[in-house]
Specification:
By secondary structure, this protein is α+β, with helices and mostly antiparallel strands. It has one helix at about 5-20; strands at about 25-30, 35-40, 50-55, 60-75, 75-85, 90-95. It has one domain (about 25-95). The protein is built from 1 helix and 6 strands; from the N terminus they run H-E-E-E-E-E-E. The protein has a 6-stranded antiparallel β-barrel.
């Protein structure tokens, strides 16, 4: 392997290690009343009264919502939201991070 190829490999590895963690920062969970997986992307501040965006795997769409409450139960966090797209109240059961 040439020095140039080695340098490219090292540069790629450094870029991967630097940026790869940012692509994996979604928060996964489940909405039992709608029987669908959901995901809250990194950057959403999940606290009572805040507006968030989550991805609903059932309809393959992003939804805007207002957080009504956040409650921790052992290894899970229940987030009660009002879905702005549907007007529906939903409880998202998320894995504790």
């Amino acid at each position: 392997m040439s020095i140039q190829a080695t340098m490219k490999t090292i540069l790629f590895a450094l870029l991967f290690v630097t940026y790869a963690p940012f692509t994996c920062l979604a928060w996964g969970g489940y909405d039992y009343s709608n029987s669908t997986f959901v995901e809250i992307e990194h950057g959403n501040r999940v606290k009572s009264g805040s507006d968030i965006e989550f991805f609903d795997y059932d309809d393959s769409a992003y939804h805007d919502a207002t957080v009504d409450s956040v409650t921790r139960y052992g290894d899970t966090v229940d987030i009660e939201v009002e879905d702005s797209n549907t007007g529906q109240n939903r409880t998202l059961e998320m894995e504790d991070q």
